[in-house]
Write a structure and sequence with these properties.
Distance between the termini: 74 Å
Largest sheet: none
Order of helices and strands: HHHHHHHHH
Structural class: mainly alpha
Number of strands: 0
Length: about 200
Amino acid sequence: MGVKYHHGDLRAELVRVSLDLIAERGLTGFSVAEVARRAKVSPGAPYRHFPERESLLGATAAAVACQLAERVQAAVETREDPVDALAAAAGAYTEYLLERRAGMNVIYADGLQGPKHAELHEQTRRLTDQFLMLCLAVSDGPQEALELMEQLFAQAHGYGMLWLDGVFAKQGYSPELVVRKSTTAARIVIEGHAKHSRPSH
């Protein structure tokens, strides 16, 4: 028997179930039919809130970007040193990716680039602005900060994916160790970048 949802509750529940499904099966395992089955609603019910697969995936990706931004905020808010804060932000990204199998791979998934995904673009800007502000604090200018941000996202995502793909697991690494290694590697990149940006006279 199906669960009855108030209008709006089902939308939120479908996004929550989608997040759990991606955490379990990755992006390739995401389907509207499976989300409906897990939410205990008819296969057509999600389409009342989300006209096609991409609109449900877009709402889920917006939730990922929002949750990541909250994780980053929590990781940096007690840190006064800008290098510490940025390294912690990178570690927070890796930690979330390990838990949810979701990061840039979901936020920038195929089909989510159009104007109808305004909520996703807004949350993505919020997340990247957080990182950019942290990068600006240790950079000489916007171009250097953008370059550093790209390096840190690539590194933080790479550490997470190497664990999710089983490479680090085969070496006996725990998720906690992977997060620590990601944070340490980020710090090395940031300190190297700061040294490169600000040569001593």
